[in-house]
Amino acid sequence: EIHIKEPTEKEVNPRLLPGELLLCEANTVYKYIQEDGSNRGTYGKLICTNFKIAFLDDDSASDDNEPQFKNKIIGENDITLQCVDQIYGVYEEKKKLLTGQLRKYPEKLIIYCKDLRVFNFCLRYTKEEEVKRIVSGIIHHSQTPKLLKRLFLFSYASAAPNNTDGRNQTVMFDTLEDWCDELKQTKGNVKYKAVTNNEGYRLYEKLPLYFVVPICVSEESILKYEGRGIPIWCWSCHNGAALLKMSAFPKEQDDSTSQTQKAFLDGIYKTISKAPYELLKTDDLSSSLPSLQDIQTAYTRFKQLFLIDNSTDFWTTDVKWLSLLESTNWLEIIRRVLKKAIKVAECLERQHTNVLLIEESATDLSCVISTLVQVMMDSYSRTKSGFQSLIQKEWVIGGHGFLDRCNHLHKSDKEEAPVFLLLLNCVWQLVQQYPPAFEFTETYLTVLSDSLYVPIFSTFFFNSQHQKDTNTSGESLKTQSGPFRFLTVWDWSVQFDPKAQAFLNNPLYAEKPKPDKSQRKTTRFKHQRQLSLPLTATKSTTKRGFFREETDHFIKNILGKRISKFINSSDEPPNSFREFYDSWHSKPVDYHGLLLPLIDGPEIKVWAQRYLRWIPEAQLHGGGTIATAAKILDLMEEVQSLQVKMDEKHSQAISGDVHSVPLLRNSARLSSLFPFALLQRQSVKPALPTSSWKDLEDEHDLVKSDDEFVDLTGDMP
C-alpha cells in the first residue's frame, strides 16, 4: 500500500539564481520522505539546472514554518551538481550505479550527496520521455567531466550584481601589504622578508604572487628551481621560533641532477643555520603521516556508515557500529594528525626550534599541520576573522588544489582526497573539547564544510591563485555592471540572514579583556593577538644551526627518499612529547594561550552534527547538547536585557560588539542535532525486525529505549 499526498493542479516554479538555467524537468515524481517500507512521501517536480538538482512540491512555494537556520542559496530539497557523490538506479528491487549512457531507465533514483544526504525518488508515475530526460540530464551534468569555465561559478559571477563586500575583517593575503602586516603582527619581520619575485607568475605558477622567506635567502636561490627547495615561512611563535614549509624535489632524478640539487640544498641550509636563526628541525610528512590515498580510502569507508538508505539498514548497522567505525581508520588518522601538530607545537614552544615541514608540493598535509599549529598556539586564529584569514593564507593563497582534491570537474578520482575536511574534523575536536576558546561554533564548521560544494564562491574552486587570476582576465569575462569579480565564501550574508548567522557565533566565547585605549596599539583587527606563553624555562643549547652529521641524511630526504622518523636532537629525551603533553594537561586551561587537544582513547570523537544530522534514528528529541545550550541562552538573554536596562540608566547604548543571541524557544521539541534537524519526524523503527534485533531484544530493549542512542556520537572503543 502506498500512502501518498495527491498531486495538485498548482504549478510550482523554481527559484533561479542569476545565471541559472533550467535544463530539464520531470513532473509527477514521487519523493520518499523515508525509506522504511511505508512508502510515505509527496509528489512534485524534479528539475536539473546548470547549478543544482531540485525537487519542488507544494511546500516549496510556502514560507510557512520556515526554520530559524535557513540557507538562502541551497534549499532543503536542493543538491548542487558538485555535491552529488553517486547516483544509483533501482531495477526490480536491485540497485545499480548509474554512469554514462543508459539502455534502460530505472524505476527509482537514489542520489547520495557529499554532505551525506540521501534522496529517494520514485519514477513509476512519471512519463517515460520525462524519465529519460531527467535521468540522463542529472547523470550528464553531475557525473561527467567538464571544463573549468563550464562551472556555474562563472555563470553566476557574470550575471550577479557586484554589490557585496565579502572581505569584512578577513585578511585575503593577495597583496604585499597583507604579508608585511602579518610579519609585523608575529614579529617575524626581523628574520624574514616578503618577496615579490613571483609577480606576474614569472617564477612558478603554483606559488602565490607574494610569499615570505628567510632574509638571508638570495633572489638567485629563489629563482633557481621554481621555488622548490626554498623554506617558505608560515608563522612565527612569540619566542621567535618559526614554522616553515618546503616543496621537495621530484623523486625521480638522474645522478647529475641529484648531485646539483644536493649541493644547492646544502648551501641553503648553511645559510639559514647561522645566527640569528634558531636550531632547525625537519619533518618529512610523506613518511610521518598517512598518504593522501590512505586518507581517501579511510574517508570513503567512514562516510558509508552515514549514507543510510532506509531505517532497517540503520538498525542492522547499529548493532556493530563502533567496530565498523574503528575499522574505517578515519578517527585514527585524525589522532595521528593531531599528535603531529602537538609535536610541532612542542618544538616551537618548549625547545625554541624552527620546524620545517617537507612535502612534495607543500600544499596538502603541510597546510593541515601548519593551520592546526596556529589554531593551537595563537588565540587570534580561534576568532572567526582570524580563522578565516588563516584559511586564506595557508590554503587558498597557499595553493591547495581544491579543484582536484574535491574533484569538482570529475576529471580524475586519483587526485581526490578530503584534505580540507580532515582539517575541519581536527579543528572540531578542539572546538568540542574547549568551547570557550573559540569565537565560532561547530555549526560554523559544518556550514563551512558544506560550502565546499557551493559553486558561487571562488574560495574552494581553484587549484591556485594563478589559476583563478588567469580565468578572470579577458574581454569575455567583463560584466554589464562592472569588472568581473567572484564572491568569497567569507561573506556569510550571501548564504544566511542575520538571525541565522547568529548560530555561527559562540555566545560563550571567553573573549580576552581589551586593554585601555591609551595603552593599546592601533591595529586593523578587532582582536589583539594573544600568543601562548612558555610553559617551562628552556635549557639553553650550545648547538646552533643544522647538525653536520645529519646533513647528508636530510638531503636524501629532500630528494624524495623516505626516512624512518623525525630527526631528533641527541640531547632530547625520547619521552619528551609525553612529558610535554601530560605537563600541559595537568594545569588549568588558559583559553587565550596554548591549547593541546586530548588524543587518548575515546577523546577522539565523531563530528556528530555533520555526519549524523540527516539520520532521524540518531537524533534525540529534546535532548543532547542543544537542551543545555537552550537554557544557557535563556540566561544570556536575561543578562543582556539587564545590561540594556543598566545602560539606559547611564544613558548609554548597548555595545555593538555583543553577539546577538539566537532564541531557542520550545527546546523540548528541538532535535539534538539542531539547527540542521529542526523538528524532524520521529524515527520509525522497522516493521519487521532483523534477526540481529530479535536476538538482542531479550537482553536489551534497544528498540524501545531512547538512552541507548546517546553513544551514537561515536567514542572509539
Automatic annotation (TrEMBL):
It comes from the Eukaryota. The keyword Hydrolase does not apply. The keyword NADP does not apply. Keywords: Cytoplasm, Sarcoplasmic reticulum. GO terms for cellular component: membrane; sarcomere; sarcoplasmic reticulum. One of its GO terms (biological process) is phosphatidylinositol dephosphorylation. Belongs to the protein-tyrosine phosphatase family. Non-receptor class myotubularin subfamily. This is Myotubularin-related protein 12. It comes from Glareola pratincola (Collared pratincole).
